[in-house]
Amino acid sequence: MAAQSSDKTPKWLNPREMKAWRSYIIASRRLLEALDSDLDGHDLSMADYEVLAQLSDAPDRRMRMSELAEIAMLSKSRLSHRMKVMEKAGWVRREVCPEDKRGSFAVMTEKGWRAIVKAAPDHVASVRNRFVDNLTVKDQEELAKIFDRVTTKLRDEFLDDL
Q: What is a single molecular function from GO for this protein (predicted)?
């Protein structure tokens, strides 16, 4: 497994590392819970919102399932489960890929488009209030660099595991 070192003895976190790690874990979980809760009035979860947001930015509001799984960093089975829930709600549908019958597209429906258009102003206000407005411009730039680096490494490891 990629996360384990070859040495059996763990390299324990020092106090500075532990503080950074715990601060991140606590803040990220609370933030995601709050953002999820703020979408309750729209009958969307953060997972639903993320899928709809990716599809809303895609040409013709459609994307290959494999590409969507990669961008969302979801396993194919998790995305498949999420799609079933979202199909039942009428927000998305799947279409067979004409070039590759094994592949399929996730397609946002008009109902899905209306759902994200309605939820987006509240979601953005929540993100701004709970996160962005608590950071300086320098903080935002530093966090973007840090998490781009972490995401790249995780995406590489995630793709290796698929």
A: DNA-binding transcription factor activity
3-class secondary structure per residue, 125-160: HHHHHHCHHHCCHHHHHHHHHHHHHHHHHHHHHHHH
- Residues with Cβ within 8 Å of 127's Cβ and at least 6 positions away in sequence, in order, are 35
Helix boundaries (H) for 73-136: 76-89, 110-130
For the stretch 63-111, pLDDT in tens is 999 899 888 777 888 889 999 999 999 999 999 888 777 789 999 999 9
Domains with residue ranges and CATH for the chain:
15-130 (1.10.10.10)
- How many residues make up the chain in this entry? 162
